[in-house]
Write a structure and sequence with these properties.
Blueprint: H1 5-33, H2 53-61, H3 64-96, H4 101-113, H5 120-130, H6 137-160, H7 164-172, H8 177-188, H9 190-205, H10 209-214, H11 227-233, H12 238-258, H13 260-273
């Protein structure tokens, strides 16, 4: 596809505008976090004497280390289990073409249409009945289920694009279904799996509503869910609130920056297949 000069310039202008709109709030938060803790900053102004100690104070008094450990505990279970289940289901729906696969695909699509907030009350009573209310498992199990529709559809989209000739060639060579899946399908699915893992990590790390509703102890929530804890402790200190929020944001930014190549590769792979 040939892109003329006007389209190229317009595309760059749009990207620059989006970049500025994304960076300005972060810069504003940083400027506010560097103000003296007992002040109420207004506007985007950097202090002459930046108070970097605000980040140390927010980290220590806000129990950020423990909160990150709680978030990591939830992520360690949610992301791998979701990837395994979604990969197997996506392979079955996209490559094996099992009986009723079209109905199951529609069923997963319908799962995407259910408002997340509509499930909070049923989930509360469900986890209460299981005896895991106010524990991290009350967030882990629902998140795995809530992520399944998108994850399965994502992986199915990949496996649908894999040529059937590869599977047929593996059969001719005497490979079993499991050997074909492990040796051929999984290596080809690495970009899609990497991108899905990044998305699941970001969504889990930034999960706010479920931890607040299902876990009463703020220190057992995710770091995003513990923002209410920050607000209660530093409600009178805007700089410390901004410092705490930036500390929470940093891991997600680092993960995306480190793995952005895999994420973009998966998106481009899907675009080429389409």
């Amino acid at each position: 596809m040939i892109v003329n000069r006007t389209e190229a310039i317009l595309g760059r202008v749009i990207l620059i505008v989006v970049l500025i709109a994304t960076v300005i709030p972060l810069v504003n938060m940083l400027s506010a976090a560097l103000q003296p803790a007992d002040t109420n900053p207004t506007g985007l102004t950097f202090p002459t004497d930046p108070q970097w100690i605000n980040f140390v104070t927010a980290f220590e008094k806000g129990n950020v280390w423990r909160l990150m450990g709680s978030s990591l505990f939830i992520v360690v279970f949610v992301v791998p289990i979701s990837l395994v289940c979604a990969t197997l289901a996506g392979y079955a729906l996209g490559n094996l073409r099992i009986r009723g696969s079209r109905f199951l695909f529609i069923f997963f699509i319908l799962g995407l249409t259910i408002p997340f907030e509509a499930l909070i009350i049923p989930l509360y009573y469900e986890v209460q009945g299981l005896g895991i209310l106010n524990t991290q498992w009350a967030v882990i199990f629902p998140l795995i289920g809530l992520y399944m529709p998108f994850s399965v559809i994502w992986m199915r989209a990949h496996f649908v694009g894999v040529p059937q000739e590869l599977s047929e060639a593996a059969r001719v060579d005497g490979a079993s279904r499991w050997q074909e899946f492990r040796s051929i399908q999984l290596p080809l699915a690495r970009p899609a799996l990497s991108a899905l893992a990044i998305l699941l990590f970001l969504w889990t790390w930034n999960q706010f509503l479920l931890p607040v509703v299902l876990i009463s102890d703020p220190l057992n929530r995710t770091v995003a869910g513990a923002l209410t804890f920050f607000q209660g402790q530093y409600s009178s200190s805007i700089p410390l609130l901004n410092a705490g929020a930036l500390i929470i944001i940093v891991p997600t930014i680092l993960v995306f920056v480190i793995f952005q190549r895999q994420f973009i590769q998966a998106l481009l792979q899907g675009a080429v297949k389409g």
